Amino acid sequence: MAIRVGILTSGGDCPGLNAVIRGVVERCAMQDVKVFGYHEGWRGVIEQDGHWMDTAEVESIQGRGGTILRTSRTNVMKMENGPALVRRSMESLGLECIVAIGGDDTLGVANQLVELGQPMIGVPQTIDNDLNCTDYTFGFDTAANMAMRAMDDLCTTASSHSRVMVVEIMGRNTGWIAVQSAIAANVNVCVIPEFPLSLEEICRRVKKRYDEGKHYSIVALAEATRIKGLDEDLERLEKDSFGNYKYPERNIGQRLAEAIEEKTGLETRHIVLGHLQRSGAPTLFDRVLGTRLGVKAADLAMAHDYGKMVGLAGTTVVAVSLKEAVNMRKEVDAELYEIAEMCCR
Ligand code: F6P
C-alpha cells in the first residue's frame, strides 16, 4: 500500500500555516503519497475528524492567514487513553505518521507520543519565535512587522498630543516580537521578560525625554514582563489546557500606563495589539519559510525519518531532534537586547 501521512495544525494559529500545508500536500502528491488533514489539531485525531486532501484544495492558499484545517488547544496527554486514541485513529486510516504543526505545546505532545513509539514529525509554528533549534519560526515575521507598523503609526498621535503611549505586544514568555519591532520602529523604551525594567526606571526614562524637550514617548511592552513596582499575583490568571497563563487577561499595558501617568504626571494611553498580530496575510518571508518547512517535513515522512522537527539554521532548512527542540525555550539574548537599548532613547 502507498504511504499515507496525517497532518494537523494545533495551538494558536499563525500566518504561514497554509503555506506549510500546501508544501506538505504538493510534495507528497509528487510521490503519490496520500495526505489526511485532521480538523482542529489533536481534537480531530481523537475524534477521527478530517478529510483526504488533494492539490486542488491547496492551490493559492499560501497567501491566506489562519489555517484551512482549523486549530484547537486540545491536549491529548491530559485525556483518558489519549495516546491510545491517537494510535487507533492512525491505524484506522492506515497513516504511517503525523506531521504536527504547532508551537511548544503541540510539539511537546508530539515528542511524548514519539517516546511512546508513535511516529511523528514536528513543524515549528508560533508568532512568539520561542522554539529552540530553529533560528526563526514562521508567523513571527508577520507579527513583528505588524507591531513595527503600529508603533511607527502611533508616533503621530502620541506626538500631536504630547503623550506617553504604552503598546502591549504578544509573545508569551519571551520578548522576541517586542524587541525586534522596537529596534525597527521609533520606540523609546523596550520592556521584555528576559531583561525587565522596574517601574521606577521606565518612569525615569520617559521623564528624561520630556526634560530634554522630546514631548512624547512610545513604550513597547511584552505581555509577560514582570515589572518591579507593579507587582501582582499571576495565580489569579486562568491557565489554558497546557498550563500557560492567559497573559492577555493581565491588562499589564493598562496597568503600566496608569502607573506611569500617576508617577510622572504625563498623560499616558495604552493600546493592546492583541490578535491582530496573528491575523491577516503572511509576509513573503513567512510564506517562503512555511513552504520550505512543509516540503522538508514531507521528505522526512516519505523517508520514514520520525522524531524530528524541521527548522531553519541560517538560510538552510534542517531536521533536528524533536526532543532537543522542546527541551528548552529560546529566549532573547543579551546582544540583541543591547542593540534595542542603544536604539530606544
Ligand atoms: O502563542 C501565541 C500567542 O498569540 C501568544 O503570544 C499569546 O499569549 C497567546 O497565544 C494568546 O492565546 P489565545 O489565542 O488563546 O488568546
Keywords:
single chain, 345 residues, alpha/beta, four-stranded parallel beta sheet, 12 helices, 40% helix, 17% strand, elongated, binds 6-O-phosphono-beta-D-fructofuranose
Summarize the structure.
By secondary structure, the chain is of the alpha/beta class. It is 40% helix and 17% strand.
Describe this structure in words.
- The chain has 345 residues and is an alpha/beta fold.
- The protein is 40% helix and 17% strand.
- It is built from 12 helices and 11 strands.
- It has helices at 17-30, 42-46, 55-58, 82-93, 104-115, 140-161, 176-184, 199-211, 252-264, 284-302, 322-327, 334-343; strands spanning 4-9, 34-38, 50-53, 97-102, 120-124, 164-169, 189-191, 217-222, 268-272, 308-313, 316-321.
- The strands form 2 sheets. Strands 3-2-1-4-5-10-11 form a 7-stranded mixed sheet, sandwiched between helices.
- Strand 4, helix 5 and strand 5 (120-124) form a beta-alpha-beta unit.
- Helix 1 runs parallel beside helix 10, helix 6 packs across helix 7 (176-184) and helix 7 runs parallel beside helix 12 (334-343).
- The radius of gyration is 22 Å and the shape is elongated.
- The structure holds 6-O-phosphono-beta-D-fructofuranose (F6P).
